[in-house]
Amino acid sequence: MCKKLSFLIFLILGSNSYSQVSFYIRPSVNIKTKQGNIFGSWRTSPIYSTMTNKYFSISNDKIFFDNGIDLGIHLGLKIRENHFLELGFSGDHAGIKTQASKHDWSIDPYTTDPSLQIVRRGGNHNQVSILGPFNRFSFNYNNLFWKNNSKTIQARGIIGFGTLNSPNVNRKSGTYLTDEIPVFTLGELDSNIYNSQYVITSTRAWRNSLYLNAGLGFDFYTKKKHKYLFSFDLFYLQGTRNIQVDHHRIKIDDNGADVNFLYTFSSRGSGVYFTFSRRLQVYPWKCSKK
Question: Of 40, 137, 37, 53, which is closest to residue 87 (Cα–Cα)?
């Protein structure tokens, strides 16, 4: 049956294409770095900085790594051993990591210089806001450009594009997905000055955000029989819209008077991806000798 089916496909596609074209599916496991910016806009360049007032400082990490894992599936076309075209679907996440520091003025006991004795110390805490899961649709082209002498490792260049999709967001109807994250406060900032409230509101801002990606892929084979084992891809993805927007609402009780602060952070879903996968050939089918 397998031989008859292969012969039928051979007649339909022609002998030349049969020998040079194959189709495969590629399940994948993905982990990625996250990155965010403060006061960023999709129309302007991201800003990575620290904002300071007389009570506290707040900043964000340009890039950080968490332990989130996403799964994917890709449909691929391999042409003449060197060219790979793929349509893919994967889960994905965005994330923002911030740090807030209260200002504590105190005496430095390790110096006798009066001009250096008054110092400001920071009481810090980190906060990570992870948004997801959402969908990542991709189209990638891979070009095989290098093999080692034993042909156990092959290297591919990767370029592609796609969209990061949040299906429940509809800006026209004003439908967004919003989570409120309570955060422990900074506590006492000074005599009769307290951080009485700290709340983060995390919002999915766009239904679709186009992206570009580029990187390298590596295929690993056994040395004796040159049997394909698995692939490892490393690439960077750059989003075009702020798919996650976090608002930090911070209330200060200053001697009985409320002072309110609002800081905005955003993420385009960009990051460095580490992908483990294996291609499973589905055409031409590899018939058994029997």
Answer: 137
Instruction: Read off the tokens for 283.
Output: 């055409």
| 168, 127 Cβ separation under 8 angstroms | no
Q: How far apart are CA 34 and CA 260, in angstroms?
A: 29
Lowest mean pLDDT among 10-19, 157-166, 197-206, 250-259: 10-19
User: Which residues, at least 6 apart from 137, have a Cβ–Cβ distance to it below 8 Å?
Assistant: 88, 89, 162, 163, 165
Could you read off the pLDDT of 145-192 as tens digits, one per residue?
999 999 999 999 999 999 999 988 888 888 888 888 888 888 888 889
For residue 75, give every residue at least 6 positions away whose Cβ sits within 8 Å of its Cβ, in sequence order, or none: 23, 24, 25, 26, 86, 87, 88
Q: Name the helix (H) or strand (E) containing 71.
A: strand 70-79
Q: How far apart are the first and last CA of the chain?
A: 11
As to burial, measured by CB atoms within 10 angstroms (0-12 exposed, 13-18 middle, 19+ buried), residue 107 is exposed
User: Could you tell me which of 136, 139, 145, 137 has the C-alpha nearest to residue 160?
Assistant: 139
- One-letter amino acid identity for 278? R
Residues 88-140: pLDDT tens digits?
999 999 999 998 887 765 666 666 666 655 555 555 678 888 887 899 999 99
Structure tokens belonging to residue 245: 């927007």
Cα dihedral angle (150, 151, 152, 154), rounded to 10 degrees? 140
Strands 228-239 and 208-221, by their bridges, are antiparallel
